[in-house]
Design goal:
Layout (H helix, E strand, L loop, with lengths): L2 H14 L2 H8 L3 H15 L4 E3 L4 E3 L1 H25 L7 E7 L1 H18 L3 E7 L6 H4 L3 E5 L8 E8 L1 E5 L1 H7 L13 E4 L7 E4 L4 E4 L2 E5 L2 H9 L4 E5 H10 L3 E3 L8 E7 L7 H16 L16
Parallel strand pairs: 3-4, 3-5, 8-11, 8-12
Antiparallel strand pairs: 1-2, 5-14, 6-14, 7-12, 7-13, 9-10
Helix pairs in contact: 1-2, 1-3, 1-4, 2-3, 5-10
């Protein structure tokens, strides 16, 4: 068995969380699947999977290997399509979903460029701050911020989104800046009801939670940001969403020393969809964009860094 086929087997086991389910989907015997993964681990000299009688879970190194395998397999498929000339023939309708602000800032410019480049291609772009079921809603590819709930999807990491708390200078001058997460109980809170939104806010690397009582609840990140700029209260957003407002001085970072770990940003699709030239061309374009233009991150304790 060649290394690429072994990688495909490992990826299937990791995504399905089961040797039995992976063997069923790949139409291979369970013994072939089990032996293939064992041979990879023996060759590398590390454990990639923790096995129990009920489940299969990735080790820390297994997670790293999984990301690399998905990227290698994607590049291999793309190389073969390029040789066959398939990647130059996107046509028909490509259905994409993305969070509202992320889609407006980053996905829409890529979509516009693809439409100019490929006259036979049409795109249906849905911007929504909710989890979309790709299979049930007929979506080809999704851009997602945060951990994916559907482990059957192929997900390629684009970067990291940094959670931040922000308020206007006027609000902080009037009410003072909270010195700790617990101090938020005495502040006005703006809650954005987006994907994974909750009034249990986590802080720090250990993700200790603080329950906040919102004074304003909105269903769009842009509305939460506008309210924060107007001095209504403190809002929790992502750094890329408030980048320009921070640079312009309309907003100020709050409790930055207690920020939780960043969230993964990924492009995800069903495994069978990668044969589509439409999906392949979008995945290629968005990966190239974020490789050249990483999402903004922090540079020092008080200031966000410049984008590359």
């Amino acid at each position: 068995m060649d290394n690429l086929e072994a990688m495909r087997i490992f990826v299937s086991v990791a995504i399905q969380g089961s040797f039995t389910e992976a063997s069923r989907r790949m139409r291979l015997s369970p013994s072939v699947v089990t032996r293939s993964v064992a041979q990879i681990e023996e060759r590398l000299g590390i454990m990639l999977l923790n096995r129990t009688t009920r489940s299969v879970q990735l080790t820390e190194r297994g997670q790293i290997y999984l990301e690399d395998c998905k990227r290698i397999l994607e590049d291999f498929e793309m190389a073969e399509r390029r040789v066959r000339g398939e990647d130059a023939k996107p046509r028909g309708t490509l259905r994409i979903t993305a969070p509202v602000l992320f889609g407006r800032l980053y996905v829409l410019p890529i979509v516009n460029a693809l439409l100019h480049e490929y006259p036979a291609l049409s795109i249906h772009l849905t911007l929504s701050d909710r989890n979309v079921n790709l299979f049930e809603e007929g979506v080809d590819v999704a851009v997602h911020v945060g951990e994916l709930a559907d482990s059957s999807l192929i997900a390629l990491k684009l970067g990291l989104a940094t959670p931040v708390l922000v308020a206007s200078p006027a609000y902080l001058q009037k009410r003072g800046a909270p010195a700790s997460p617990a101090a938020l109980s005495s502040h006005d809170i703006i809650l954005f009801e987006g994907i994974g939104a909750t009034n249990e806010w986590s802080f720090g690397a250990d993700r200790k939670t603080v329950r906040v009582e919102p004074r304003l609840i909105v269903n769009g990140a842009d509305a939460a940001i506008t309210a924060a700029e107007a001095g209504v209260g403190i809002s929790r957003t992502l750094l890329y969403q408030v980048w320009e407002a921070l640079r312009a001085g309309r907003l100020t970072l709050v409790l930055q020393d207690f920020a939780p770990p960043p969230l993964p940003v990924s492009v995800a699709y069903q495994a069978r969809r990668i044969a589509s030239a439409n999906v392949a061309i979008f995945v290629k374009a968005i990966r190239e964009h974020f490789k050249a233009n990483p999402l903004a991150q922090f540079n020092g304790p008080q200031s966000p860094s410049e984008r590359n």
